[in-house]
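INFO batch 0412 | record 1 of 1 | parsing
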Amino acid sequence: MIESSNKLQFHYLFKDDSHSIDASLRNECEKELLHLFKDVAESLRLDIRLETLPSQEGGFKDVWKFLGKNSVQITLIISITTIVLSRFPAENEELTKLQIENLKLDNELKRKELDKLNLEFLQEDKDLDDDKLKDSVELVNTNYKISWRKSNLYKKLQNYRKVEAIEIQRFNNEIPINPPRHIPRKGFHNFILKSDDLPDLIITKAEIDVISPTIKPGKFRWKGFYNTEIITFEMNDFAFKNQVLHGDIHFSNTFSIEVEMTQKRKIDQDGSVKVTNTYVNRVIATIEYGKRTEFNY
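INFO prediction complete | emitting tokens
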């Protein structure tokens, strides 16, 4: 059984005996933590609200009170967050394949995973068991944003030489639950991702409405409409490109291409996946006035 908790304390331990912290650093760390709390809750489709309590000395301690539907759901979110922030990841150099694949999971599949856990129906008078916590942690760990936020947090802490360790501890009102989880400075690097880049996304079949083709030689970029967004892309199908340059392909305002393409991606400062470049590797067919024609190589 997991003991009930409604508060989380984040304790900065310093090299000296002071009780002050750089205001900008604290603000940046709190931003990452608040986002992480939110991402944990959203991964489990649970709602939380947070109250910030007065800071305490002893190094420097930030305390948050969690508010939600009931004490069991709150305990679950706090327990998961404590584990995520303090347990060394098995893989730390980049986002894992599981997390990347999670980007592609549809809502139906995610719903089925959550239905198995049945978290929304955790009741006030029920105990939270270890199996439920373990399964919830595994689900949360598939969220790339959580690993990314955690990496940002420890990167900021590593760059602030005054901090020699942090401690994370759960509380039930004023009563501490279990000893604090201690992470020394030498362990910060274990949580830091070496790259914000994501593996290339290879799309085997996509339709692009051509807005602006390139009809002159050179590394000029095309412009098109894909997935309700305007994109620019490089045309790397040289057979198709040569036919365009030779005037063998004519464009109209209904001209589309069916393609295989690759997208370069990275995580932006808001934790969202951003496409940085798109390459069309092969044109499969052209579509004009609703008529599809296989491209002849």
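INFO post-check: The mean pLDDT is 87.
INFO record closed
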